[in-house]
Each structure stands twice: as structure tokens, then as C-alpha cells.
Write a structure and sequence with these properties.
The complex is a heterotrimer of chains A (116), B (159) and C (155). In chain B, 74% of the residues lie in helices and 0% in strands. Chain B has 159 residues and is mainly α. Chain C has two domains: 1-32; 50-154, GMP Synthetase, Chain A, domain 3 (2-Layer Sandwich). The chains are: A mainly alpha (116), B mainly alpha (159), C mainly alpha (155). Chains in contact: A-B, A-C, B-C. Chain C: InterPro entries: Spore_lipoprot_YhcN/YlaJ-like.
């Protein structure tokens, strides 16, 4: 069942992005930024984690999860160390996405040649 | 975005805007949405397969399996971007490939590959966060605001 | 013609996805009268599993629980449950509620309740080893401690 809902929920989030592209004529940068902020706000309201429980990868793969895990990391540290934790803990949970992008970006630049 | 500033433009520029709007190629919104739905859903489906694989064959739990899943997806994106296949999917599916984390990875990786001729330090390093930069900026800042509000509210006993 | 082909292939994809899901569902037994659990009777050597068996009985009466596994040592107990997919939105709430219930029911044990797929798999393995009498007391304690630590691991 989770495979079906991962497909559907992931698709719905992408459709929201597509509507932002086509109807509101936003650029990809704007759209992704709005989606990340939306992910952070939904996690603040406590609605994103139930969505992950329900849809699995359908909620963890889209870029909205980036905002969600930033808030998670910040809250985890804030629970332990107080307000300063909000700043220190942010990238604890998210590092896989960013580190992977940077590392594989560099490896890609080493291995591949730009095409015309 | 252009229609936002329409009111501030002099009348002749406004006339041009409406001239342009009439002649602009209409986007097939419904068709694009359907394509985005299927491609985006498919990428998330693959993500779910990878997550399930990591849960069953490695020592990851549901909570921690998200990290290797994202890393694996970005690795696959590197291969697809390097061989020039990813942007063809992107042209077909629009937001279906841009919204998942693979789109983020593609933006960084394609910027790296493209600017490699300018040298690794200035070219690759200087340009890799062209698109990713705004995502990281707004993500971090909004997470900061949300976490700050939540912490303050829980400290004051409201939550 | 092309669009018809594309539509048919996507409908096949969706059918495939739903069947992927239902296959896994059948294996975890969603029949409400037939909740998947096996009570463990252990011979002399290993920790007595009566507390775990009682926990399984209590939880199987709960409507939302489709499968339950439990293992206990002399002072710790780990329980895992599965709930039907459409109730997963309230997974965390359900988990907390059942954890409190089990803690009240077994005040002499340190009770942990988990819904995580990995913990379910690990606990099933451990139960299997118990049933086959394949494990010593010390090993059981070590394994249970390891699984509980895994369940607490936050990314």
C-alpha cells in the first residue's frame, strides 16, 4: 500500500509545483524555495510527520522534506541545548542531501564532459 | 511575474504587455500537470523501493533510512545528468523532475559539469549553488523562524 | 494513438503499484479475527515469555492492531505492532497511547512499543530464534538491548 501512496502523494506535490510553473508563471528557483518554506511551516504545525508516516517516500523525496528536516534538526538541538540549539542543530539531519549533492557534483565534474 | 509590475509601467509599456500576453504560447496546463504527476510519482516510487531495500537488507530503521535513500537518488541523478539524459526528462515532465530531491541534485551537478571548463575553484566552486543557493537560503531561514517560534512558545508554556 | 498507448501503460503501472502493496498486506494478515501473532512457550533455559504473551493478547483485542510481536527479558519488554495503512496518519498518537497502556499494564517492566518496520523485522527474527530454542539468556538480553537501541536511533 505504501508504494501506491508514495506514488500518489509524490505526484500531488509535483503537480502543485507544476501549477506554480504554469499558472503563476514562477521560475524553478521560486517554486522550489516556496516548497521548502512550505515544508518547514507544515512541520512547524506538526502536519508533515503524519504525512511521512502515511506516504513514506512520497513525502521524503520531494524538496519539501528539506524544510521539514531542517526544522527537525533545529528542534532536536533546541530541546537539548535551549535556544542556541536552533542554530547549531539545523544541518544535523539534512546533511545527507546537501553533502551528497556537493560530493556527487564534484565527482560529476571530474568524470563527465559538458555537452553542447 | 511580468503582470505583477503592470500597474507601475508607463501606458505604452502596458500596451506592449497586453500585446505580448495575447501572443504568448499558451501552456497546456492540464497535460503538464498529468505528466508531472506521473513522473514525480514514479521518482517517489523508486525512492520508496530504495528505502524498503535499505530497511530490509541493512541496519536502517524507517526514521534513518531517508538519508541513504536521498544519497542514492542523488547518485543516480549524477549518472543521468552526466550522460545528458536528465534534462530530456526535465523537458518532458517539468516540475515532475524539478520538485523531487533529484531536481535539486541535477541543478547542482549540471552547474558543476557545465562550469568545469572555467576551472575547479572558480568555475565549479563558484557556480555550483546557482539554483541550490536560494533553496538553501530560504529553507534555512524559514526553518530558523519556525523553530525559534516553536521553542519560544514551548518555553513560555503556550504549546 | 500515442496517447492511448501512454494512458494504457500508466494504468498498468498503477495496477502494478497497488498489487505491490496488497501482496505485502496479505502476508501480514488483515483479517480482524485472525491477527497474526504466535505465543512463545519457552523451556527452562530461556527467559519466561508469559509477560510478552499477555501483552500480545491484550493488544490483539485492539481493533487497530493487525499484527503484534513481543519479547521480554527479566526487566525489559519490547513490543511491535502493525496498524492498517489508512490509519497511519495518526500513527504517532496511536503509538503513544498504546505505549502508555502497556506501561500501566506492566509496571515491573521497562516497556518499549514501536511501529517501525525495521524493528518489526528484527523482533520477528528474535521470536523465531526463541521458538526454535536457539538462543541463550545472555544472547537474548544482548539482542533485545541492541534492538531497543536501534529503535531509539533518531536520524
Amino acid at each position: 500500500m505504501i508504494f501506491f501512496w508514495a506514488f500518489v502523494v509524490g505526484g500531488i506535490i509535483c503537480v502543485i509545483g507544476q501549477i506554480m510553473f504554469d499558472v503563476f508563471k514562477l521560475s524553478p528557483g521560486h517554486t522550489l524555495s516556496i516548497l521548502v518554506v512550505a515544508g518547514a511551516i507544515l512541520d512547524g504545525l506538526g502536519w508533515y510527520d503524519p504525512l511521512i508516516d502515511f506516504a513514506g517516500a512520497g513525502a521524503t523525496v520531494p524538496i519539501t522534506n528539506f524544510g521539514n528536516s531542517l526544522v527537525h534538526g533545529a528542534m532536536q538541538e533546541a530541546d537539548k541545548h535551549g535556544i542556541i540549539g536552533v542554530i547549531t542543530g539545523m544541518f544535523e539531519v539534512t546533511s545527507s542531501g546537501i553533502s551528497a549533492a556537493i560530493i556527487f557534483g564534484f565527482i560529476g565534474a571530474l568524470l563527465f564532459k559538458p555537452k553542447g | 511575474m511580468a503582470d505583477k509590475k503592470k500597474k507601475n509601467l508607463p501606458p505604452i509599456a502596458q500596451k506592449y504587455q497586453s500585446f505580448q500576453d495575447k501572443r504568448e504560447v499558451k501552456r497546456p496546463v492540464v497535460k503538464n500537470c498529468i505528466k508531472a504527476f506521473f513522473v514525480g510519482g514514479f521518482i517517489c516510487f523508486i525512492g520508496q523501493l530504495i528505502t524498503t531495500f535499505y530497511i530490509h537488507f541493512f541496519h536502517f530503521t524507517e526514521q534513518t533510512a531517508g538519508n541513504p535513500t536521498v544519497a542514492t537518488l542523488i547518485f543516480i541523478t549524477m549518472l543521468l545528468t552526466g550522460f545528458g539524459v536528465y534534462d530530456r526528462f526535465g523537458q518532458f515532465a517539468g516540475a515532475g523532475t524539478a520538485v523531487p530531491v533529484t531536481g535539486f541534485g541535477n541543478a547542482v551537478i549540471s552547474a558543476c559539469i557545465e562550469h568545469r571548463t572555467e576551472g575547479f575553484v572558480l568555475g565549479v566552486g563558484g557556480n555550483m549553488f546557482k539554483l541550490a543557493g536560494s533553496v538553501v537560503l530560504f529553507g534555512v531561514f524559514s526553518a530558523f523562524v519556525v523553530a525559534l517560534i516553536k521553542t519560544l512558545l514551548s518555553n513560555w508554556g503556550v504549546i | 494513438m500515442l496517447y492511448i498507448r501512454i494512458t494504457i501503460s500508466f494504468l498498468l503501472v498503477i495496477g502494478l503499484l497497488t498489487s505491490c502493496g496488497t501482496e505485502m498486506n496479505n502476508s501480514s494478515g488483515r483479517n480482524s479475527q485472525d491477527i497474526q501473532l504466535t505465543k512463545i512457550s519457552t523451556k527452562g533455559n530461556i527467559h519466561d515469555q508469559t509477560a510478552a504473551n499477555r501483552a500480545k493478547e491484550i493488544l490483539s483485542k485492539n481493533d487497530s492492531v493487525t499484527a503484534v510481536q513481543a519479547v521480554n527479558t527479566s526487566n525489559k519488554m519490547l513490543i511491535t505492532i502493525e496498524i492498517p495503512h489508512h490509519e497511519r496518519f495518526l500513527l504517532e498518537k496511536k503509538r503513544k497511547e498504546l505505549q502508555k497502556k502497556m506501561e500501566k499494564e506492566f509496571p515491573d517492566y521497562k516497556v518499549e512499543l514501536s511501529t517501525d518496520k525495521k524493528i518489526i523485522l528484527e523482533l520477528e527474527d528474535l521470536e523465531k530464534k526463541l521458538r526454535e530454542d536457539n538462543i541463550s539468556n545472555k544472547k537474548l538480553e544482548k539482542e533485545l538491548k541492541h534492538i531497543i537501541k536501534l529503535s531509539k536511533d533518531q536520524a
